[in-house]
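Justification of computing resources. Each target in the renewal requires a structure prediction run like the one illustrated here; the chain below, 340 residues long, is used simply to show the kind of job we budget for.
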Amino acid sequence: MALRAGLIGFGLAGRYFHAPLIEAAGFELSAVVTSRAKDVRDNHPRAAVVDSADTLIASDDIDVVVIASPNQFHFPQARDAILAGKHVIVDKPLSITSSEAESLAELARGHNVKLAAFQNRRWDSDFLTIQSLLARQQLGEVVFYRARWDRFRPTVADRWRERPEPGGGILYDLGSHLIDQALCLFGKPDWLTADVFMQRKGAAVDDGFEILMGKGALRISLGVSSLAADGDWRYCLHGTSGSFFKRGLDPQEEQLRAGTPPAAASFGVEPENRWGTLTRDAGARTIESARGTWVRFYERMRSAIENNDPEPVTASEAALILRVIEAAQRSSSEGRRVDL
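Resulting structure tokens:
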């Protein structure tokens, strides 16, 4: 019998990311909490539409609660789901503070349920390519890593991420991904300095940031601009044996929003014009991007529940992301370097 998933939220993340991946990984999408009942019925006719998160969490017909609500609701909804004996998946960030994330981790252990943060960008095409290059020592010892997520959105949108609410702003939104990827590659840094800022007219929360982190000789630069009509390199790595440069975004988000099913042969495959370049002593060559596999998150979560394997992204890992976010906020507000 398939694990029965209940989804809280049917906005961008719930509708286009979680719902199709839930089904592609062999879960049953049993119920959805949303005001968009027609959208659910049109796209997932077998899923029930329920009136509240409390109702879904209390249901005996749900094994796994997937939380894709605004960030400020992640902690209380995850806590209530764990207390109800459900396995839990929370869209990033797991919570707003690291202490909340740590308390959820302890609570999940105490109730013998699985808890994971949906850090899907670990399974991006470009990031998987970089992981492969580093695993094969193609760059030697990496001394500089830069990852950016620049875009051109000059108008402030009327949506919760851009309102002055707990967990709003670009540092929580895109910063969660950039920080997580850096931590996956290099582990916890020794220190960081950060500038978290607002640049657009009418902005009420941060819409850009620059973070510099250090770990021994390695320097890690992470940044986002909302006013970049012509974006910079997505990734830039320098090492003792070579360099790697990459432009363009992983295609999975645009494919899911266009309705491409995760099982399609083209899903997660980057076009050649987005492939990166590896430069070594012998010269430069194009590196074909690995196939992006967001569905792996849900496949690994299913295995964690059924076989007691580790979660694809643990709550402890999510708590470290939040500690870095908190350090960046502190560095920016106090104008100083913060040790980690």
